[in-house]
Amino acid sequence: MWDYSDKVKDHFFRPRNVGEIENPDAVGEVGSLACGDALKLMLKLDTAERIIDVKFKTFGCGSAIASASALTEMIIGKTLDQAAKITDNDIAEYLDGLPEQKMHCSVMGREALEAAIANYRGLKIEKPVEEGTIVCKCFGVTDNKIAHEVREHKLNTIEQVTNYCKAGGGCQSCHPQIQAIIDEVWHKEKEKAMIEASRKPVKRLTNIQKMKLVQETIEKVIRPTLKFDGGDIELIDIDGDRVMVSFRGSCSECPSSKVTLKSTVEAKLRELVTDTIIVEEVVS
Amino acid sequence: MKVVYTDNNATTKVATEVVDAMTPYFTEYYGNPSSMHTFGGQVAKKIDFARQQIAELIGANPDEIVFTSCGTESDNTAIWGVLRANPHKRHIVTSRVEHPAIYNLCKYLAQNGYHVTEIGVDSHGMIDLSELSDAVREDTAVVSIMYANNETGVVFPIEEIGAIVKQRGSMLHTDAVQAVGKLPINLSKSTIDLLTLSGHKLHAPKGIGALFIRKGTTFTPFIIGGHQEKNRRGGTENVPSIIGLGKACELAKKYVNEEQTRIKQLRDKLETEILKRAPDTRVNGHKASRLPNTTNLSFEFVEGEAILLLLNEKGICASSGSACTSGSLEPSHVLRAMGVPFTAVHGSVRLSLSRYNTADEIDYIIEHLPPIIRRLREISPYGRETKVKGQTSTVSARL
Question: What are the beta bridge partners of residue B5?
Answer without folding.
Answer: B317
